[in-house]
TrEMBL record:
Region (Disordered): 705-793
Main location: nucleus
Compartments, as annotated in UniProt: Nucleus
Protein name: Serine/threonine-protein phosphatase 4 regulatory subunit 3A-like
Stored InterPro entries: ARM-type_fold, EVH1_PP4R3, P4R3-like_central_dom, PH-like_dom_sf, PP4R3-like, WH1/EVH1_dom
SUPFAM superfamilies assigned to the protein according to its UniProt record, in alphabetical order: ARM repeat, PH domain-like
Family of this protein: Belongs to the SMEK family.
Biased composition (Polar residues): 733-746
Ranges of biased composition (kind: Acidic residues): 765-780
Keywords: Nucleus
Residues covered by the WH1 domain: 1-104
Composition-biased stretches (Basic and acidic residues): 705-717
């Protein structure tokens, strides 16, 4: 078993003056050849890798703090710290350091820390200067004492010597005795001087002095001195608050007295830093870094000690989930858990992951399912904070728990649905809790932090689960409020809630393309959301516009067809008209949406908008968007007309030139004879059709080039065989004013039009010999012999 005395955590101070955890391991000291000296070595307890290899230099200043910390600097702006699990291990390493540097192990610091620039070094007194002599500690010398301490602050060496003097003479306790005398005599001037003295002692930034001032028997006196701020007309009541107002509630008995004392001390020191000490100036900010480190390491130690109390945490969650626990007790338990999670923010990522895994294994989320739904606002608010801490650090942990609930008896019991319901039912007029819960939901729904492994896809599994079991709960308020043609509830709180839901839905459209698309198309959700365009709350109208803009921005043709078929741009145009050209955000948002359709050349939507709303929007002349859409639509229509004309010509030409097979000719021939009598009985209709065909031939004639006309004139000399399958020839024969139903069909029937006189042969292209040959083959062999006599009957 590894020696726990040498078990340490290695910390490094980052640029933000925060301690980063570099790992846990075991420390040793040994001679290292490459450094040619004794070095500190820290090897990781997990894999034995080397976390630290630091030579003990004779001139490096090492500080021993809080009996279990050793802090030093390696190079400029690179501070390191070793936090020992046991005091004995710290003492062993400290003795080794002092042995190398030739120092007495009883000192708290091995060297004077020089932090000033090179120029300041020559200006300061040398290390050989005599120690600072403090004046006798009595009321009459307070002003002199204050001036002496103030004069030492600019010089790092003098600060060091002053700190040594204050510590060695037990001077702080003497000053506290003077404070008691002054307070009894109500000597305000002396109390103001004492305030300045103690404030400057804090600025010395020495951990040894903090340990003296924060001891159980002196901390309240130090707080008392700091009540007499000269800038305040009346003394503050800090001691009254700490003793009587703020009370330590031991919701579950803590058996470790060291842990209890550490909690008390940390709370009081944190209070001194936050409420008692004046806000440090820009030049004083770094002079309290040791105080911040003192609080930081205390919190780390508290969290570690609590995690070691397995029975304590287990009992905590048992009582939280126990239905018989009364509300007051449950409130204390939840508040304690919230404070516990707050302290955990001082841990480094690896330690924090272990911390939250411990909580989840003990049933933290099961407990939150109960506490989130309670009526007590304090419990609910603290529960939201706890859930936020967990989700912020590791959304996959919560999603994994959710997927384990994949076979619930009731969807209402799912933690996701509990979160949604609490967001919807938030009683706060400002919806503070709802805003926080919507942020939690967004983190859980964000695919960017979802894991994809070889064996499973968290994104697919979780989103399938969410859209199946939870999405209907989220959109329920939207559907309930948009059942009619306008929103049914228009109060401010409902509008803000719908705004939060719309923000989440817009997020889903952007990030869940497949799942949300199916949901919108099957539920016709966009139509219901566009009802919100009639809301009196402009921000809610903008939410609906933003939702539709996000859909259009995807440029998905499924969405486009859905919008066109449902005529879903109409509500947006109506909202634009109601805005009546006012220069505001709504006007700009709607115009930007149409501008996007135009600039991205979304043909289906652009054509739909121009065709359906072109006239309604043509008067909008302060932007060119609608005119451009209308012009593009008209150009497209012209192209389509030209194309359709050419296609109709080609169709007519093909119908006159090509025959598919003999069977088709027989069917057409039979159809013509069957319809002949009926067509003769309907002369008026035939005349109309004749005029229509004459007009088409007129158009055809105009489009034929000169070469074609010359060729057709030559072809007029040829005898063109009758084509009984040609609809033009058949109809023309029937409609001819001089035709007689009893007259046999001439093999060279002439077709006349007002502008062009030619035979049916005009459809032949004489410059294509193969086509002529094909037509001759058709005339000679394409029609069965049995049909020919029938043509002349």
């Amino acid at each position: 078993m590894a020696d726990t005395r040498r078990r340490v955590k290695l910390y490094a101070l980052n640029a933000d003056r925060q301690w980063d955890d570099r790992g846990t391991g075991h420390v040793s000291s040994s001679f290292v050849d490459k450094f040619k000296g004794t070095s500190l070595l820290v090897r990781a307890e997990s894999d034995g890798s080397l976390l630290l290899e630091s030579k003990i230099h004779p001139d490096t200043a090492y500080q021993k703090q809080q009996e279990t910390l050793i802090v030093w600097s390696e190079g400029e702006n690179y501070d390191l710290a070793l936090s020992f699990q046991e005091k004995a291990g710290c003492d062993e390493i400290w003795e080794k350091i002092c042995q190398v540097q030739g120092k007495d192990p009883s000192v708290e610091i091995t060297q004077d820390i020089v932090e000033e620039s090179e120029d300041e070094r020559y200006e300061d007194v040398s290390d050989t200067a005599p120690p600072i002599e403090l004046p006798p500690c009595d009321i009459g010398r307070l002003e002199e004492i204050s001036e002496l301490i103030s004069s030492c602050l600019p010089s790092p060496i003098r600060r060091e010597k002053l700190a040594v003097a204050l510590e060695s003479d037990n001077y702080i306790k003497k000053l506290i005795e003077v404070f008691h005398t002054c307070e009894d005599l109500e000597n305000i001037d002396s109390l103001h001087q004492l305030y300045e003295i103690f404030k400057n002692i804090f600025l010395l930034n020495k951990n040894a002095l903090f340990e003296v001032m924060f001891a159980d028997d002196t901390i309240f006196d130090v707080v008392g001195v700091l009540e007499y701020d000269p800038s305040s007309p009346n003394p503050k009541q800090h001691r009254e608050y700490l003793r009587n107002v703020s009370r330590f509630k031991e919701v579950i008995p803590i058996t470790n007295p060291e842990l209890v004392n550490k909690i008390h001390q940390t709370y009081r020191v944190q209070y001194i830093q936050d409420a008692v000490l004046p806000t440090p100036s820009v030049f004083e900010e770094n002079m309290l870094s040791t105080l911040s480190s003192f609080i930081f390491f205390n919190k780390v130690e508290i969290v570690s000690l609590l995690q070691e109390e397995e029975k304590f945490l287990a009992e905590l969650f048992v009582q939280l989930t126990d239905e018989t626990t009364d509300d007051e007790k449950r409130k204390d338990l939840v508040l304690f858990l919230k404070e516990f999670c707050t302290f955990s923010q001082t841990l480094q990522p690896q330690s924090r992951e272990t911390f939250f895994k411990t909580l989840l294994n003990l049933g933290a989320l099961q407990a939150l399912e109960i506490t989130l739904g309670m009526d007590d606002q304090t419990i609910k608010s603290a529960s939201i904070d706890i859930l936020s801490y967990i989700v912020d650090f590791s959304p996959p942990m919560v999603r994994e728990y959710v997927l384990q609930q994949s076979n619930p008896q009731d969807d209402d019991q799912l933690i996701i649905n509990i979160i949604i319901e609490q967001m919807i039912c938030d009683l706060d007029p400002d919806l503070g809790g709802a805003v926080q819960l919507s942020g939690i939901l967004k983190l859980l729904l964000d695919p960017d932090n979802m894991l994809v492994t070889v064996n499973k896809s968290e994104k697919t599994d979780f989103l399938n689960f969410f859209y199946k079991h939870c999405m209907h709960v989220l959109i329920a308020p939207v559907l309930a409020n948009t059942a009619g043609d306008k929103p049914s509830k228009e109060d401010s709180q409902t509008a803000q809630l719908l705004g939060l839901i719309m923000e989440l839905l817009t997020f889903c459209v952007e990030h869940h393309t497949y799942h949300i698309k199916n949901y919108i198309l099957h539920k016709d959700l966009l139509r219901r959301i566009l009802v919100l365009l009639k809301s009196k709350h402009t921000f809610l109208v903008l939410c609906a516009v933003r939702f539709m803009r996000k859909i259009i921005g995807l440029k998905d043709e499924f969405y486009n067809r859905y919008i066109i078929n449902g005529n879903l741009v109409a509500p947006v145009v109506d909202a634009f008209k109601r805005n009546n050209g006012r220069y505001n955000l709504l006007d700009s948002a709607i115009l930007e949406m149409f501008e996007f359709i135009k600039s991205e050349d979304m043909k289906s939507l652009g054509t739909y908008v121009a065709e359906m709303f072109g006239k309604a929007l043509e008067k909008v002349d302060y932007v060119q968007t609608f005119k451009s859409l209308r012009l593009r639509f008209e150009q497209t229509q012209d192209k389509l007309k030209d194309r359709s004309s050419l296609e109709s010509v080609s169709a007519v030409l093909r119908n006159n030139r090509f025959r598919r097979d003999a069977r088709q000719l027989d069917e057409d021939e039979e159809m013509w004879f069957n319809e002949e009598d009926e067509m003769e009985d309907n002369e008026s209709m035939n005349d109309s059709m004749s005029r229509k065909l004459d007009a088409e031939f007129d158009q055809i004639g105009k489009m034929l080039d000169k070469k074609g006309r010359e060729t057709e004139e030559k072809e007029n000399l040829r005898a063109v065989p009758n084509k009984p399958g040609s609809p033009i020839l058949n109809i023309r024969k029937v409609n001819s004013p001089t035709s007689n139903s009893a007259q046999p069909l001439s093999p060279t029937v002439e077709v006349k039009s007002p502008t062009l006189t030619r035979k049916v042969g005009l459809v032949d292209y004489p410059d294509e010999d193969s086509d002529d040959e094909e037509e001759e083959d058709d005339d000679s062999s394409g029609v069965p012999v049995s049909k020919r006599p029938r043509l002349n009957t």
